[in-house]
Amino acid sequence: MKRAKCIEAIYSELQDKLVVTIMGACAQELYDLGHCENFFYLEHAMGLASSIGLGLALNLPHERVVVMDGDGSVLMNLGTLTTLARYHPPNLTHIIFDNGSLLSTGGFASHTTAGITDLAAIARGAGIKNVALVSTPFDFIEATADAFERNELSVIVAKVEAVGPDHYGMDLKLPENAFRFERYIKEHSKIRTE
C-alpha cells in the first residue's frame, strides 16, 4: 500500500478539517493533490505534528483535526501517545504512516522495520481506545471513515511502502503557510461559533 494513494483516497474528506502533516514525503504528497488553506505542513519539526494537532484539538473543540504523521516522527516523540491518551480529545484523528523507514531524512530503517516495534500496540498500551492497524487500501479507507464519524480520539497505523514522491518542493514556505493557516482558523471558527 502506498501512502500517496491513501492520502488521495481521503483527500475530499479533509476539506472541512484542520490537517497537520509532518515534514517530507507526507507533506509533499498532500500538497501535490492541491493545497487548501486548512492544511498545515509542519516542515523542519520532526516529531511535533501530533503535539500541534493536540493543541488545535483541545483549543478548538468545534473543529475536527487530522494529523498525518510518520513512524520516524512518532518514534522521536513517543511520549505523544501517552499525552494524547491522557487528554483524549474527541475531535482528533492521528494517522501514522508506517513505512519502516526514515524516508525523508535519508531512508534509514526505523525501529518498526521487520516488526521490531509495533506502534499500534504502543498506542493501545498508552491508553488509546480506538486504534486500527491497517495494511490494505480498503482497510485504510474503512478505518478513516470510522474515525471521522466517531466522536472519540482515534489512531490509525497504516503500513505503507517506503516510497516517496518523485520530487520535493512547495511554493508555499512555512511562515506563509502558518499565517494563512492561522487566518483560516480565525475566519472559519468565527463562522462556526456565530
Overview of the molecule:
With 194 residues, the protein is α/β, with parallel strands linked by helices. It has one domain: Rossmann fold (3-Layer(aba) Sandwich), CATH 3.40.50. Helix content is 43%, strand content 18%. The protein is built from eight helices and eight strands, in the order αβαβαβααβββαβαβα. The chain has a six-stranded parallel β-sheet with strand order 2-1-3-4-8-7, sandwiched between helices. The longest helix has 20 residues, at 174-193. The protein starts with a helix and ends with a helix.
The CATH architecture is 3-Layer(aba) Sandwich
* DSSP strand content: 15-25%
Number of helices: 8
Mean pLDDT: 90
> Can you tell me the CATH class?
Alpha Beta
Q: Tell me, what's the shape?
A: globular
The main β sheet shows up as: 6 strands, parallel
Q: Report the structural category.
A: alpha/beta
Radius of gyration: 15 Å
Percent helix, as a range, is 40-55%
